[in-house]
């Protein structure tokens, strides 16, 4: 059983998780005054809150779908993080990263057929 609502909820959770990973990466790229400020700053705390929210979305989505669909939908997050890192963090999209992103998307399409 797979409902459109469950897929949309899962995709919202995946998107939130992808943005939280970008936020955590931006915090890791900054210099911090102390050990504690490295782990207890606004970006890190908000990033982990976003991860918690994405986990709650996943739990909510699993209530309306079979468990076999969850990992397939969550794999979109890896492709989304690669794209967001290029757009937001200005990282280069290498041929290898591009090929991996395409393989993830193709694998998802094949799984859903």
UniProtKB/TrEMBL annotation:
Q: What is its main location?
A: membrane
Cite the EamA domain residue spans from the record: 3-111
Listed Pfam families: EamA (PF00892)
Q: Which keywords has UniProt assigned to this entry?
A: Cell inner membrane, Cell membrane, Lipid A biosynthesis, Lipid biosynthesis, Lipid metabolism, Lipopolysaccharide biosynthesis, Membrane, Transmembrane, Transmembrane helix
> Where is the chain membrane-spanning?
6-24, 45-63, 69-89
Where's it found, cell-wise? Answer: Cell membrane
Membrane topology, as annotated: Multi-pass membrane protein
Which InterPro entries does the record associate with it? EamA_dom, EmrE-like, Small_drug/metabolite_transptr
Family of this protein: Belongs to the EamA transporter family.
Q: What is this protein called?
A: EamA family transporter
- Native source species: Christensenella tenuis
**Organism classification, top ranks?**
Bacteria, Bacillati, Bacillota, Clostridia, Christensenellales
């Amino acid at each position: 059983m797979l409902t459109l609502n469950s897929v949309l909820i899962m995709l919202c959770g995946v998107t939130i998780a992808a943005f939280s990973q970008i936020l955590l990466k931006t915090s890791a790229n900054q210099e911090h005054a102390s050990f504690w400020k490295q782990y207890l700053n606004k970006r890190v705390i908000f990033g982990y809150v976003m991860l918690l929210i994405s986990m709650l979305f996943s739990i909510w989505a699993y209530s309306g779908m079979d468990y076999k669909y969850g990992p397939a939908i969550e794999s979109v997050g890896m492709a989304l993080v690669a794209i967001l890192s290029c757009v937001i963090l200005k990282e280069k999209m290498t041929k290898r990263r591009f090929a991996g992103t395409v393989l993830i998307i193709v694998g998802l399409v094949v799984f859903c057929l």
